Amino acid sequence: MTIRVSDDEVIAFRLAAHNLGERLSSDELLSAAGACGIQNSPPGSALTALNARMKDVDRDLFESAVSEEETLVQSWSMRGAPFFFPTADLPTFTTGVLPMTESSMRHFVLGVERSLDDLGVDLTDLVDAARAEIRDVLAGRRLPVGELGRELADRVETSLTKAQRRTWRSEGPYAKGQSLGEGVAHFGLRILTLQRVLCFAPREGNTAPFVLLDEWLGNAPGGIAVGPDADPVSDSDRDRHRAELLRRYLHCYGPSTRADFGAWLGIRSTEAQPWWDLLDAEITEVDRGRRAWMLDEDVESLRSAAMARGVRLLPPRDPYTQMRDRETIVSKENRAEVWKTVGEPGAVLVDGRIAGTWRAKKSGQRLKVDVTTFASTSERVKKAIRAEAEAIGTLRAASDVDIGVSSD
Length: 408
Known about the structure:
Oligomer: single chain
CATH class of the domain at 102-223: Mainly Alpha
Helix content: 40-55%
Largest sheet: 5 strands, mixed
Strand order of the largest sheet: 9-10-11-12-13
Number of helices: 18
Shape: globular
């Protein structure tokens, strides 16, 4: 029997699943990052997202988990965006995301299709060629995407015909002075990360270099085969990791639909069916004005979830605001303020509601934080907003934080 749920129930349930109700303790970093991954674009936003979910977030603790303990890893994942997630969850957020067909891969790396057509090649063939060359290019090194793309493009070029090489060397549409081949190589790297060939190493200044995954984590961390020489994943393992990814999604974003899952993942709705079919026996249909589905095991939690209290400053592209049914959490008149194509702000969460936006700009050791709420707000909320902004200032190594709070 289909159950009916209200928007308030859905919001309360999702906030709890995203750990935006009660903050986790400082030793629960992996739980916070593993719910559905933590997007790190713009760079540094992952730490702000973790601050909204955990008590006493510490930059040193975070960086140690990445570079010393290696319990946290950064890789391109959903929608081809950079995410942090637990190393133990590597298969879920790589193999579980990986599109398998030429069509779905082209859709996943939007922008490459015209170049592939001009070359007359398949993306899958170019990815295979890049995989065959990448150890010789990257072994023992850490390279930023520009340098890695150029060196890889030079090597992949040898597998092309004479006519294709002319197109490959010509200036492409992606950046002035950049060859079409280098641009295509950049797109191919997104697929190679999902094939567990490479990942991001810790940032070096303003650069996030790439490193071979087997050199970074060891040949098979936790029994996970990684690197360019790893055997292909079996169909059964692929399906297991896809199923787990969908469970994570439905736990954080349910009740939801196949179309919304596909958009969150970065593929078309119809191409998401193989994932969806894997959980057919584990999901329940829900009526919330439209048909949606959630995990059977989460129904009781949704019914009993209490609305979150308190204030959080969520960064641009926080996992919570990446839900596809935006109308659930932001009214129509304010939606364009929260989700902008360029210059996307962070979101202000007040007692479970998106109540405004915020932006931060650092100049030297000074961080300026401007908060705009959709309506006038109490002194209690303003005080909490200032406390959240001060915490972000500490994470960004600011000695002075200038905070302004205004309303539309």
